[in-house]
Amino acid sequence: MTPADLVGVVELHKVCFEGYFLTALGDAAIGALYSRAVDDPKSVACVLQDDSERILGLAVGTLNPAFHTGLLRRSFPAFAGGVVRGLFTEATVRKGIGERLGFVSKIFVARADDTLERSGITPSQFPEARFLDVAVHPDCRGGRHAERLVEFFAGEVFRAGAGRLGGSVKPRNLGSLILYKRLGWNVQKTGPDRVDVWVDREE
Ligand SMILES: CC(C)(COP(=O)(O)OP(=O)(O)OC[C@H]1O[C@@H](n2cnc3c(N)ncnc32)[C@H](O)[C@@H]1OP(=O)(O)O)[C@@H](O)C(=O)NCCC(=O)NCCS
């Protein structure tokens, strides 16, 4: 992913993540997330393109535990604007803000997600990366494009120094669960509405 891809990436995000909190915050907030992923040396951002360079898929992850706090500090106006507008116009934003109130007090403090550790899963002895978003345009799904994209992306993440790549998905997200099972990743339910998936770098 390069800065030149950002317009296409934002359009793809809106198609693939309709109804999500970030999507409801608007183009400026969505663009800020991917722009940070492109600029941050500890993050990896890949796109899947067709022959005419139309963006059909994306995979973004980070080795940086301060990714989100840095994003909010750097792009506060984009997020504040999205929240203020969304509070009046978007039910998703009103609901999302309610759910995230507990996070607000910690918003300016870097913190790692320790769900795996709390679930008794042995931590990797090397740095751990989290994937943030993986998506393929609905017109292109089911063709194993997502498998190829995620395999390429994981290779880049491991080359960047990670020993483990993981993330969480909703149990109802069947497409994702099938994808990670097929790729041979570990898949474990870690909460009532959360499944963790992860893969370790082969030595
Ligand atoms: C997750 C995602 C990238 C998977 O893409 P994909 O194109 O379906 O993945 P693949 O082509 O590798 O194949 C997955 C398989 O699961 C199947 N599948 C997908 N959704 C399914 C469902 N609801 N029920 C049954 N099978 C399903 C596909 O048909 C495909 O099987 P096939 O190859 O035999 O046709 C895509 O669904 C997507 O972009 N979702 C929206 C964004 C998202 O939720 N991302 C994950 C969280 S970050």
Give the ligands present: coenzyme A
Residues in β-strands, percent? 15-25%
CATH homologous superfamily classification of the largest domain: Gcn5-related N-acetyltransferase (GNAT)
CATH architecture identity of the largest domain: 3-Layer(aba) Sandwich
Q: Taking strands numbered 1, 2, ... along the chain, how are they ordered across the largest sheet?
A: 1-2-3-4-6-5
Radius of gyration over alpha carbons? 17 Å
Q: How many distinct helices?
A: 9
Major pleated sheet: 6 strands, mixed
SSE string, helices as H and strands as E: HHHEEHHHHEHEHEE
CATH class placement of the largest domain: Alpha Beta
Report the end-to-end length measured between terminal Cα atoms: 27 Å
Shape: globular
- Number of folding domains? 2
The CATH topology of the largest domain corresponds to Aminopeptidase
Determine the structural class based on helices, strands and strand pairing. alpha+beta
Spans where pLDDT lies below 50 across 5 or more residues: none
Number of strands: 6
What's the average pLDDT? 90
Helix content: 40-55%
Describe this protein with a few key phrases.
203 residues, six-stranded mixed beta sheet, 6 strands, globular, binds coenzyme A
